[in-house]
Design goal:
Immunoglobulin-like; about 0% helix
Length: about 575
């Protein structure tokens, strides 16, 4: 059968008496599908089998435009030429004539063969009747309830009668005419009548004007509103003719009574916390604090405690809801405390690694001009005895020297720094860095590197590799004996010089000199051996050919002893 159909499809035709059955119904929800029945022949022989069919809707019998999409019915069963399918092209039927074009192929074949001619879709008798209905239908032909929206799009369309019996009318659809006051609900406010509002009305808009002139100064017991259109000024005031009025603001705290919280008097003074409820905090939503804030729910503001205890009747200054500064009722100022015990008290827990100079506790300028003036600052630390007195005084006459700072403890002053930069102390000076002294002028070249370290050295361990002193690249080390000394250098140390002048136990001189080339590998240079019996030595080592570091050591020991002691002077801190 497949072979016969492959060569005979051009002869396939739909019988002229193929049936088009439109499944019309009295139910409006029937849909747009209809049943199509046809008869398929091949070489004038009725066929039986399974075929794939396509259906297209056209506006012409052999040309025109295609309407809707192509419908495909695969695996359609055909028996003695007859087949039945259900087609749905959607809502396409508006009275226009259409023709149906079919394509066929054996089930699973590659291409469809278009059959000719196209078949015209014809209406059923009931549809013909509905298309030709004109005039007025008798009332007996209309009954029931029509539950689909009706659109009247012609300007002459109208309903007769007076509308009696109509319900669920939407008043928003009224576009003309006048509704009398009698037809309005009694709750509706009228423009030309006095109103008593028993609810909570809300007035929306840019202005609410009682008197369109300047601020209302007529007798008005209550709140007045005014607006000057000329200068664009609006105002709110409490109005009393010939007297004065206070403008007050009332609120109801949670769980409390209606309370006046803010007031503006006749002179413009503003007062807050009129109920004296503040307990010294700024309200963050969880505490009882009525204060002056900057911004809605802001943590920056000023509070004044009116309840008993603490900084009562003082001022407390807040940022981030935290008390940063306070002024007591007697004028004392506290920073970091709300109970200062002096005209100025600073309390800080500022801490950091070492001396945190970038975050000082306080900064004070002393403008005293007499030698007998009070100290600029006295710092008291917790503990006993109390230490930390600091004062400063200016130069008050020719020949006198004022002190920038004077340091002391509970018993005496121990150090002074005068305005010429001279520093004096009765104790020791400890410096962990380099010492820079002199004007660094008067020579052809400025010193480089800048600064020196001068300190004592002790070497009481004979272990080989024990470091006595160093430059930036060379190390003066013990060689493991009592008197042996050597220099250790790294690879690629650069040009280095070693010079030593020594004295042995018989007062004989033992000198040494070596200029190290830029060795590619690390190594050591022996300066003195233990057998040379050196008991005193001045050793200089480092970079003497440029602006490198240089170290000078002076050390001595008792003959036969294993301990070297002395001093080191170096441009390299150690």
């Amino acid at each position: 059968m497949k072979t016969i159909l492959r060569h005979a499809f051009l002869a396939l035709a739909l019988l002229a008496f193929s049936i088009l059955n439109l499944q019309l119904s009295t139910a409006f929800a029937q849909g747009t599908a209809f049943t199509y029945q046809g008869q398929l022949t091949s070489n004038n022989q009725l066929v039986t089998g399974t075929y794939d069919l396509t259906f297209k809707l056209w506006t012409g019998s052999n040309s025109g435009a295609q309407i809707g999409s192509t419908l495909t019915d695969t695996g359609t069963g055909v028996t003695n030429g007859l087949f039945t399918v259900i087609l749905d092209f959607g809502s396409q039927y508006n009275g226009t004539s259409y023709w149906l074009e079919l394509g066929v192929r054996t089930n699973g074949a590659a291409t469809f063969i278009t059959l000719a001619p196209r078949q015209e879709l014809t209406p059923t008798p009931y549809a013909i009747t509905a298309q030709n209905v004109t005039g007025i239908l008798p009332a007996s032909s209309l009954s029931g309830v029509y539950n689909v929206a009706v659109t009247l799009s012609n300007a002459s369309d109208a309903f007769g009668g007076i509308g009696t019996g109509l319900t669920a009318l939407n008043a928003t659809q009224l576009t003309s005419g006048t509704v009398s006051d009698a037809r309005l609900n009694s709750d509706v406010a009228l423009l030309d009548a006095s109103q008593i509002y028993t609810g909570s009305p809300t007035f929306e808009g840019n202005t609410f004007v009682i008197n369109s002139a300047l601020l209302d100064t007529d007798l008005f017991t209550g709140l007045g509103f005014g607006f000057d259109e000329g200068i664009g000024e609006a105002g709110i005031m409490s109005c009393f003719a010939g007297a004065y009025g206070l403008l007050s603001f009332w609120t109801t705290p949670p769980g409390g009574a209606v309370t006046r919280q803010m007031m503006i008097d006749q002179y413009g003074d503003v007062s807050v916390d009129n109920g004296s409820a503040n307990n010294g905090v700024l309200n963050n939503g969880t505490t009882n604090g009525a204060g002056l804030t900057f911004g809605f729910q802001s943590g920056e503001g000023i509070a004044s405690k009116h309840s008993a205890g603490g900084n009562k009747n003082g001022l407390d200054f807040y940022t981030l809801y935290t008390n940063r500064m306070a002024i007591t009722s007697n004028g004392f100022v506290g920073i970091g405390t709300n109970g200062p015990a002096a005209p100025l008290e600073v309390v800080s827990s500022q801490s950091g690694a070492g001396n945190n100079f970038n975050s000082p506790v306080s900064l004070i300028e002393n403008t005293n001009t007499t030698s007998s003036s009070s100290p600029a600052l006295r710092v008291l630390a917790l503990g006993s005895p109390v230490y930390g007195a600091l004062t400063a005084s200016a130069q008050v006459s020719s020949g006198t020297v004022g002190n920038i700072a004077t340091f002391g403890n509970a018993d005496q002053f121990v150090a002074w720094l005068d305005i010429d930069g001279n520093f004096s102390t009765v104790g020791n000076i400890t410096n962990s860095g380099l010492i820079i002294s002199g004007s660094r002028t008067g020579t052809s070249q400025a010193p480089s590197p800048l600064g020196l370290v001068i300190r004592r050295i002790n070497s009481t361990v004979t272990t080989s590799g024990s470091v006595i002193a160093r430059s930036d690249v060379l190390l003066l080390e013990r060689d493991g004996s009592n008197g042996g000394l050597l220099i250790a250098y790294p690879a690629s140390a650069g040009a280095q010089t070693i010079t030593a002048m020594g004295v042995n136990n018989t007062a004989g001189q033992v000198n040494f000199y070596d200029a190290l080339p830029n060795e590619g590998t690390a190594g050591t240079v022996q300066i003195y051996t233990d057998s040379q019996n050196v008991v005193y030595a001045q050793i200089s080592f480092g970079n003497t050919s440029g602006e490198g570091h240089l170290t000078q050591v002076t050390i001595s020991r008792a003959y036969g002893n294993d301990s070297w002691v002395g001093t080191v002077t170096s441009t390299y801190n150690q």
